[in-house]
Amino acid sequence: MNTDVYSKKIWWKVVLIVSGVIIGVVSLLYTETFLRELRMEEERKIRLWAKAVEAVFGASEEENLAFYSEIIQNNQTIPVILTDGQGSIIAHRNLNVPEGDEEKLARYLERKLAEFKATGQMLENSFGDGQTNYLYYKGSTLLTKLRYYPLLLLGVISVYMLISYMAFSNARRSEQNKVWTGMAKETAHQIGTPLSALLGWIAFLKEQYPKEVAFGEMEKDIDRLSAITERFSKIGSQPELAKLDLSDTLDTTLTYLSKRMGRKIRLDTSVQPDLQRLHNEQLISWVIENLVKNATDALEGEGTISVHATVVNYAVVIQVSDTGRGIPANVQRKIFSPGFTTKTRGWGLGLSLAKRIIAEYHAGTITLAESTAEKGTTFKIVLPLA
């Protein structure tokens, strides 16, 4: 049975994404409608400006041109060039005309005309005498800015969604950490009281029956319980790291586990000696124990577990492999999530805490290196030496 206590909280991600998409689509549609209306309005102004220019050029000296001149002067934003049927420039407006001689001005206008023909828009004005003038123009500065507005808006929405996602994720992660930290400390507290009593009873029984060898093994298990209690008490606080031989930590842990496996389960170990690295002995031991126990469960009573540790590229690399049933592909990305487990009675804490111990306390990484159905699983731990 697969259990993921946080799977139902994915709704906020869906709401966040859908809200962003809706805002983006509505804004784009509204902006495009507004731009289309603005382009039509500018086109009307351009036609009116062209007619005013032609009226001025064709007017007699007696005509009052104040009205047409006002129309021409009112165009303060739209760059425009008016040509006759042969392509000669009749008039222009709102261009950054350079100061200088006529030849320099002519070259500038020809260059701008070519630019308008390539990237701008063109209107035709036909007259009754068969002549046609051509009006080339580009959008105003306001229209150009509005064209980029949707892209800017999408960028802002994307940043908003990213920040919101990170905020929600951090809030959820903080909530999870508080829950698991509280549970770990409470567990350590609850185990501590009967454990102290057991230590006293073992000491009493050893005095009464000094020849009984079973008490020695019982004492080892109680020492193990004490170590587990200490591990839980360290969760939620920064543990002390010491410059210890990681090889000894691994060997001690694996030796203890090897005596408590099924008869048909074989433990192969290959640990490079003298792996000096800052670490917390209890917590690293816990990680290895979790991985080996998970591997044992996957074997279902028979198979091989391999643990290899060596130095690769200035890092200690530890691999824990088994020949068990493997992890289904559809749940592999969830295995390190707090609360997720494939076991009927599992709490989903082991791999989550292992990841926290390796990543947060030892600046390393723990990953699922490989898992194939009915062939086995390999976990990989990398602990940088520097």
Task: Name the helicity range.
Answer: 40-55%
Number of domains: 2
CATH architecture call of the largest domain: 2-Layer Sandwich
CATH topology of the largest domain: Heat Shock Protein 90
The CATH class of the largest domain is identified as Alpha Beta
Alpha-beta classification: alpha+beta
Q: How many E strands?
A: 11
* Annotation field: number of helices: 8
Strand order of the largest sheet: 6-8-9-11-10
- Give the C-alpha Rg: 39 Å
Distance between the termini: 41 Å
Largest sheet: 5 strands, mixed
In one word, what is the shape?
A: rod-shaped
Segments where pLDDT lies below 50 for 5+ residues? 1-6
* Strand content range: 15-25%
CATH superfamily of the largest domain: Histidine kinase-like ATPase, C-terminal domain
User: Mean pLDDT, as a whole number?
Assistant: 79
